[in-house]
Structure formats: C-alpha cells, structure tokens
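Sequence only, no structure available. Ideas?
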Amino acid sequence: MIYLKFALLIWLLLSNTIVNANCVSCNFDNKNLANFEFKNQNLSNASFKGAYLVNADFSGAKLTSAIFDDAYANGANFVGAQLDNASFRNAELELANFQNASLKDVTFESAYMVHAELSKRQILESKFCDNAVKDAMKFSSMCKNQ
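Reply:
I predicted one. Tokens follow.
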C-alpha cells in the first residue's frame, strides 16, 4: 500500500511539473485540463485537439500556431495571449476572454462563440470573417464592413 501511495505522489508531482513548465509542441489532445493554469507559458505549436479546457487560464501565454480544434474551452482566459496562426475549428468558446490577445491569422471556423470577448481589431486581424462562425451574432456586423 505504501508503494501505491508513493507512486501516486510521484505521478501527481510529475503531472503538475509538465503542465507548469514551458511546453513547445506538446500534445494535450483529449485531456481534461479544466481550471489548469498555463499563465505566461510558452506553448507554441502545442495541440489541444478535443481537450476539455473549461476555465483554463492561458493569460499571457505564447500559443503561436497552437491547435484548439474541437476543444471545449468555455470560460477559458486568453487575455494578453499570443495566438497568431492558431486554430479553433469547431471549438466551444462560450464566455472565452480574448481581450488584448494577438489573433493574427487565427481560424475560428465553425467555432461556437456566444458571449466571447473579442475586439473589432481582433476580428479583422483574424480569419474570423472568412469562416462560418456559429452563433456569433454580436460580431457579424463587424465583418460586413470589411
């Protein structure tokens, strides 16, 4: 029994270390990472396909070319993150906060973005207007003037 407790403790320490460290090109596909903090980390080229990211904190993180396709990221915090060339195809982003994030050439194809926080500048810099974004009525008028 003591070996089992020791093994569990080692696993917990290692899993927290991996998440809290810079992780360029890491694979987090289909992982449950709800409420995890990735704040100010370098996660360039990381893959979060199909991951459960509810209320995850990516504030200030470098997420250049990261893939969030099919991720469930309701309430995720991307404030001040660098997301250039990232992909959010078919992602659930209800209440996600992208304030002051860099979104150059980001793809939001078929993303669900009810109540997401985006500025007009961010929408025009991203590929938002080129894609069919589900339930993004509050942003649709910004694309008409493009």
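Residues 78 and 98 are 5 Å apart (CA to CA).
Hope that gets you unstuck.
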